[in-house]
Amino acid sequence: MRRTWIPRLANYSNNQVILIFMLAIDTNETEALNRTTEESKLYGDLLIMKLKDSYRMWTIKTLSAIDYILESCSDQIGQNQSQPLFLRLTQDVLVNPKPLFQLFMRLSNTSNERFCAGAETVGVVVRNPGSIWYVPNYVYSSPNYGEYCQGCGFFITFSAMEELVQYGSCLEAVMYIDDAVITGVMRQQLKIPLMKIPENYITWKGPILESITRNETADRYKQYSIMHNQPQITPTEYGEIWNYLHSNNLL
Questions:
Q1: CA gyration radius for the chain?
Q2: Could you read off the pLDDT of 136-158 as tens digits, one per residue?
Q3: Phi-psi label, residue 151: left if phi above 0, alpha if psi -120 to 50, beta otherwise
Q4: Phi and psi of 23, rounded to 5°?
Q5: For the range 171-176, what are the long-range contacts, defined as Cβ-Cβ under 8 Å and sequence gap of 24 or more?
Q6: pTM (2 decimals)?
Q7: 160 neighbors 116 (Cβ within 8 angstroms)
């Protein structure tokens, strides 16, 4: 990411975007902890949580990141004339910096100071214990999550962030499907509006590289802010996809 879209996003935004990487590392993983600590000293953009990382930690990681931003970035946020926004991205997405920053600016200049925004979906609660999305009935009894933002990338305003963190701190049990929990269940309880954003915000078609090379209308990929690759890709594949898109003027 540091070698692909991050420098270009910084350029387009004139460094108006603050980037933070959320990492969870078990304290027993000494080598990994030392390595990331050194990287954090070098770049100053790693939020390291000393706990065993897993899919079940996503909600805690996201709420922790929001809490960190509220506490540590308030000075920078206060200097911004437009509305500050939090954008949560997963590691398996490819960012197209220009349209993403344009979307950032459009959302930050809306009159509503309190909303979540993303590609809207409605999810059914999975009751199969063998699934990574399993949620037992005693944790959440409703059969569905209602409307929420697809998890690979969603926006939250500063005002909504404060409410969500306060609400999350009062929960006895936190479900780990962070997109459904934060932008669905918690958002609805707090009556925070859900803002729909354009369909060309995101594409889920993947693998990205195969999809683009087969597609005669590859230019349409220039419109997308976020491209979610399926299945998850390695860092090497990530770089190859970026290089292909960049060299063919698709970003």
A1: 18
A2: 888 888 998 889 998 888 999 98
A3: alpha
A4: -130, 140
A5: 173/139, 174/59, 174/60, 174/63, 175/59, 175/135, 175/139, 175/140, 176/55, 176/56, 176/57, 176/58, 176/59, 176/60
A6: 0.85
A7: yes
**Using CA of residue 89, residue 93, residue 94, residue 100, what is the dihedral sign?**
negative
AA identity, residue 63 = L
Question: Shortest CA distance to 103 belongs to which of 18, 198, 5?
Answer: 198
> For residues 84 and 156, what is the distance between their CA atoms, to the nearest angstrom?
9
Helix or strand (DSSP H, E) at 247: helix 235-247
Distances (CA, A) of 38 to 28, 31, 58: 17, 11, 24
The string of pLDDT tens digits covering residues 17-68 is 888 888 888 878 888 888 888 998 898 888 888 777 777 778 888 888 888 8
